Amino acid sequence: MREQLKQYAASFAALAVLCLLGTVTVVLSQSSTPAPTGFSTPTLSENQGSQSVSNGFPEPAGDTFANDQAHFEEQDGVDNGLGPVYNAQSCVSCHQNPVTGGISQVTEFRVGHTDGNGNFVNPSISINDGQSTVPNRSLVNDRATCAQAQERTPGTETIRTFRTSLNTLGDGFVEAIDSNTLLAIANTQPSQSGGRIAGEFIQVPVLEAPGQIRGGRFGWKNQQASLLSFSSDAYLNEQGISNRLNPTDTTTVCKTTADPEDETDSLGMDDIDHFATFMRGTKAPPVDSALFATSDAQAGQHLFTAIGCNICHVTTIATAPAGTVINGGAFTVPAALGSKVIHPYSDFLLHNVGTGDGIVQNGPPDTANKMRTAPLWGVRTSDRLMHDGESLTRNEAILRHAGEATFVINNYRSLSTNQKNQLITFLNSL
Amino acid sequence: MHFPRIRLLVGEVKSMKRNLPWLAAISFLCGCNAKPSTRLEQPIKEQTADTSLPDIGTGHSKSASPEEVDATLQRIFGRLVIANRADHSSVTGDFNGDGSLDLAVIVLSVKTELGMINGELANWTIQDADQFFTPPAGERVVFQQKQSRPSVEAGEPLLAVIHGFGKAGWRDSAARQAYLIRHAALGDLRAIRATGHIERAPPTVRNSDVIYEGSNHGEFLFWNGSQYAWNRKANNKP
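Output (structure tokens, whole complex):
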């Protein structure tokens, strides 16, 4: 009897140890680990994606990361819905440098005007010799599949701006940031800056979850919160291909295909699903590790924080834990994206730094002259800076900041030439 | 020798071996292989930080005394430039449309300090009001010429523009965003409110002031959002 009790006690003790180990394992699996980084999606004209490596994002049944990249690189034509008005034939046309999904120098054109109260108003642009109108849209497409559909900016649209294409590498991690994390950053900025900096957090519709909203984080105006919504919006507005979330084309002039033009493939996925899956599978932009390790870059990194750049260009953010249901219930963060530490150098909030373009999209009217803090990860691959690409050197871009950024930039002005060079070396290592 | 403690441990190990299968099963259920628990992204509460734009206003006197101009130039450029003392060589207005009063003043570069003025990491931006690309009307395909970085020449008259900050505008010690503009120092500066005067107004001009100079009544200098540039097509006189 006593022996039996001993056996039970021993078993119980062993079980307790194993349970403890199990619990520790779960806790460790939920604690944050660095997100994988790398420019690992080389653009290939043939056999697309064959050399590409994803971040481990789980592919839908039958799908592969290479297949998703191939869709991202696919050149569309009129026969499968391109246009009638559009900017480019593929995602990769604008998101390519230095690899598929990166940035580019390609800009899009937006216009509008203000009403008597100073509020931004979207234009309605006549096409087809005035017989048709593209209503209520600030984007003006630079191309059309026929001359009659070409959009031309009326003189009445006095607000005009170009916007550069954005990087999408690592955007799966950005999508996986809990909205409350972004809000918390916004709420701490005034105390970090003596009340001089206050990023604006906006919530925008999640197209795949009708009636649901979420913290915006994609686009120069934070106009999208999910990568599927972003894919759908871009497919319609940049390529002119209607899809299940934006089912009606911009115009019917010269239109030869039926809406929605994005079709479901044998895997049960539309193109927009492949685009979103590709972006979710990309690694975060890597630093130039050799340059990053130099003493100048390290000193620059210290200065970056010391003078306050990091208040908006937030250096480190952790994504939501795996299993978190986001995008209004439409997406669950997988282990590959959950609890990952990223270094985006952005707060993904809207700020007035004196460079606003006057355009309002999904935010309230006061966002007209606010832009999303440009994420600086991968900025070394960009030679045209700020939202319009008008700043051509790092120093010019820094000095162009005003408004909320004034006191930070004045700190920069107070640096010695050597220190400025160190800071720029650091930026060039990102 | 008798070691009851060791015997107990040996017994525990033996019993563990016997019970290994069900121990493994329970530990599996216990959490070693548990999936992460599902949680919902929590609804957002209201943003507590005030993100409204400051009510800047331009309540200060528009006129700039020579002493104020000198002090402002000294604050930003040190001794690298000298203010022109001729009449109407400075003017104030909200040139970049941010609601804060700015200062524009004609200056001369100090010949011996050109290296500092043109420094790649100088605290001001050198621009050329003539080097601004405007796509010609009526042409579908236009090639933009690559332009070199402007460089100030010895003794060259320049228009220095200091953007204001907050309610005190250019007088605020934090107002240090500055531009040295080539080919824009004709003299006889006048600031005119853009509203009602400008056709084809660029984005930020609508609620800001533009600068007329000299006898160029049909032309004005304006801020296009990133640069000061001449508008050569204006047909409204001040």
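Confidence is low (pLDDT under 50) at residues 18-28 of chain A.
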